[in-house]
Specification:
The complex is a heterodimer.
Chain A (H helix, E strand, L loop, with lengths): L19 E7 L3 H12 L4 E4 L9 H4 L1 E3 L9 H12 L6 H20 L17 E3 H14 L3 E3 L4 E6 L5 E8 L5 E12 L19 H8 L4 E2 L6 E6 L14 E4 L4 E2 L6 H10 L2 E4 L8 H7 L1 H10 L8 E8 H4 L3 E2 L13 E3 L7 H4 L7 H22 L9 E2 L8 H4 L6 H4 L3 H12 L2 H5 E2 L1 H21 L9 H20 L9 E2 L13 E4 L5 E4 H9 L1
Parallel strand pairs in A: 1-2, 1-8, 2-5, 8-16, 18-19
Antiparallel strand pairs in A: 3-4, 6-7, 6-17, 7-8, 9-15, 9-20, 10-14, 11-12, 11-13, 13-14, 20-21
Helix pairs in contact in A: 1-5, 1-12, 3-4, 4-12, 6-18, 8-9, 15-17, 15-18, 17-18
Chain B lengths: L1 E4 L9 H5 L5 E2 L7 E2 L10 H5 L5 E3 L15 H6 L5 H6 L14 H11 L20
Antiparallel strand pairs in B: 1-4, 2-3
Classes of the chains: A alpha+beta, B alpha+beta.
Chain lengths: 546, 135
């Protein structure tokens, strides 16, 4: 079968990467693709490197976005800002919210011009632009990025950033996981981290690619994070799977195993999750009028696909439901981006999409697909353009050094004590299981207490030391040890931040502090790996400015 | 999780190996691609969407299907029309209309917005997510 015109995959070689580009984008989901397009539009040479495949990678590809898509007419945008400011717990930035809505409006019209097959509305065919179906959206984004002259490198996870003598980020390194983990290194005038959030391998739809790799890399070069206490978003999924698409649960009624109906309306997340802590909960979408059924199916085909495959009619039959952690993917914490164009606190490093904190536009409540989708577009566009401008004429000072440590260069090997550490020491799967036991349960993470948080940290802090000491890359394709290290880091950041916020605000619920304290209507920065520190963002900005 | 690569339908194009976001498949020079790392599958159905010959079946279970399950049985799945289902819904493939043309999500987001209770107004007042009555 192998003819000259039909080269079998295994004979292919990895894409040759250039030694240097102006802008290096890590991550090929929506934010990464918008960043690459914006950087290329500025005339920069751009490489986009993805752990998976640009087009299927990222939480949006599997799901889609009901975008935060607000017309410029009248006072619609002012009202949207006002609503979100209150709902988000008074942590948002009205300037960035306005800019995000404006940029999203323009970008969606660019997608329409590029051929996205939008549905009709009352004004005519192709006119309703507020919703993007994931596979279609990301297939188009891949095409657009390649047409713009961006070098796309798939299946090649970044493992670490490179920094120079001035502490500026000057490139990244990683492996080609489908080619025996062959190493790659790309120097860059600026790097955009768009690697997604961290959902702790919970299985939430399309989120297992999001293991927090970018935030770990950023923290290793000294970047700060923000909003990490808002990291406990859970989606509702059928118990047999992990399909966390929430919108259709507005039609649900819920009941106990014995059939007793629960007095919880629609999506009613907190009350539903309280009930789940106490025992199994069942749902049925029996509030949907039959004339809506077909519309529902066309709008969210992969919500219904799992039911069809199981032979369950969700409109008529009861099915078990469970809460699946979506972490910072649909939480709002991430790398702090206080600077112009989503610059981080480290020179040469920009962040976009779910890798960045989304408090600016969604505060402490979930941005779901809508605000997060708009943020991916706008932060990506801003970061790509700003990275391109900052890259002009920038060269590394001294010799670039790789910054990666935990899960990559174990301390014991550095001391020459142990070879083949992975067999003898900690293995990535064990680390992941240990983290998951502290972050997945609703009773530990959704409903927090000071005592529970301290108990989790008493497990996670020594686990981090073990990881730093002995977790080594395993002999399998990919970067599993690195992902495990990123998850431990995230768990510690989020619980330290949660301890430093003794109140309940937005998604952060402290059962030992159920009220909201007006004095705490301010953001928290968290930074560090071996030692994790938390401080109000305002105090931190003052330190950095001085 | 991915359960079946149909021997009969697969044409060895390698697209599933390329596009899988969690690198579940391995290419094989002398055979069809293989499911090399099933435990890494995130059940996103995107390999089904991209497979040009409807040769893949991803079970909706978040773990592997048990031995003897119809979700692992190619013949029974083919009989039930379970191959290529997602690709059909999203309208990919020759002569099909993109499913996104039928997207009516706005109906559901508008309905949800209309159901939403009014929010508190004062800065710093209770903004924690609404708690329903505890069961």
């Amino acid at each position: 079968m192998t003819g000259p015109e039909r080269v079998r995959r295994s004979a292919r070689r990895p894409v040759a990467v250039p030694p240097r580009v102006d802008v290096l984008v890590l991550g090929g989901g929506p934010a990464g693709t918008w960043a690459a397009l914006a950087a290329a539009a500025e005339g920069a040479t751009v490489a986009l490197v993805d752990k998976g495949w640009c087009g299927t990678s990222g939480a949006a590809a599997a799901g889609g976005n009901n975008l935060w898509f607000v017309p410029p007419e009248g006072d619609a945008r002012e009202r949207a800002i006002d609503t979100r400011t209150r709902e988000g717990g008074f942590l948002t930035d009205p300037g960035r919210m306005a800019a995000a809505m404006a940029r999203t409006w323009d970008a969606v019209h660019e997608l329409a011009a590029a051929g996205y097959p939008f549905p009709a509305d009352q004004h005519g065919p192709g006119r309703y632009l507020g919703s993007l179906q994931g596979p279609e959206y990301m297939r188009l984004q891949r095409r657009r990025v390649r047409r713009a002259g961006v070098l796309v490198v798939d299946q090649s996870p970044a493992t670490e950033l490179l920094h120079d003598d001035d502490g500026a980020v000057v490139g990244a390194a990683g492996v080609h996981r489908q080619h025996g983990n062959a190493p790659w290194t790309i120097g860059a005038g600026a790097v955009v981290v768009a690697t997604g959030g961290c959902a702790f391998l919970s299985g939430a739809l399309g989120c297992n690619v999001d293991t927090g790799d970018g935030a770990l890399m950023a923290a290793e070069v000294g970047a700060e994070l923000s909003g990490m206490e808002f990291s406990n978003q859970y989606g509702t999924a059928p118990a047999f799977g992990a399909e966390t698409k929430g919108l259709m649960y507005q039609f649900a009624t819920y009941s106990r195993a014995d059939g007793t109906e629960l007095d919880i309306g629609g999506m009613g997340r907190p009350a539903l999750q309280r009930a789940m802590v106490e025992g199994p909960v069942y749902a049925r979408l029996d509030r949907a009028e039959p004339e809506l059924h077909q519309k529902m199916r066309w709008s969210q085909p992969n919500f219904f696909l799992p039911f069809d495959k199981m032979g369950i009619d969700p409109f008529r039959e009861r099915f078990g439901v469970r809460a699946v952690l979506e972490g910072t993917v649909r939480g709002t914490g991430g790398i702090a981006v206080p600077g112009e164009g989503c610059a981080t606190t480290v020179p040469g490093l920009f962040a976009a999409g779910d890798a960045a904190s989304r408090e600016d536009i969604t505060g402490g409540i979930t941005g779901g697909g809508s605000h997060n989708g708009a943020w991916a577009i706008s932060s990506g566009s801003w970061a790509g353009a700003a990275a391109a401008r900052s890259a002009v004429g920038r060269r590394p000072v001294g010799t670039p050094r790789p910054a990666g440590r935990a899960g990559l260069r174990p301390a014991t090997t550095a001391r020459g004590e142990a070879a083949g550490v992975d067999a003898a020491g900690v293995v990535a799967a064990g680390v992941v299981a240990a983290v998951q036991s502290r972050v997945l349960p609703l009773e530990l993470n959704r409903f927090r207490t000071g005592a529970g948080l301290r108990e989790s940290l008493a497990v996670l802090d020594p686990l981090w030391e073990e990881v730093v000491d002995s977790l080594a890359p395993a002999d399998r394709p990919g970067t599993h040890s690195r992902q495990a290290a990123a998850m431990v880091a995230h768990a510690r950041w989020m619980y330290r931040a949660a301890l430093a916020r003794p109140e309940s605000r937005a998604m952060h619920v402290r059962d030992d502090h159920p009220g909201t304290d007006p004095a705490q209507a301010r953001r928290l920065r968290v930074w560090g790996l071996d030692e994790v520190t938390v401080a109000p963002a305002s105090a931190r900005e003052a330190v950095i400015a001085s | 999780m991915i359960e079946v690569i149909s021997e009969a339908r697969c044409i060895d194009c390698g697209i599933c190996v390329d596009v899988c976001p969690t690198n579940v498949f391995d290419a094989d020079e002398h055979a069809h691609p293989s499911i090399a790392r099933q435990s890494d599958c995130q059940t996103c159905f995107l390999c089904e969407a991209h497979c040009p010959t409807d040769a893949l079946f991803v079970s909706p279970l978040s773990g592997p299907a048990p031995e003897g399950s119809p979700l692992r049985d190619e013949e029974s799945l083919a009989r039930e029309g379970r191959f290529g289902e997602y690709r059909g819904w999203i309208g990919w493939g020759h002569g099909r209309t993109p499913g996104s043309r039928n997207d009516r999500n706005q109906v559901f987001t508008l309905r949800l917005r209309a159901l939403r209770p009014p929010e508190p107004a004062a800065p710093g007042s209770t903004t924690a997510e609404k708690e329903g009555p505890r069961p």
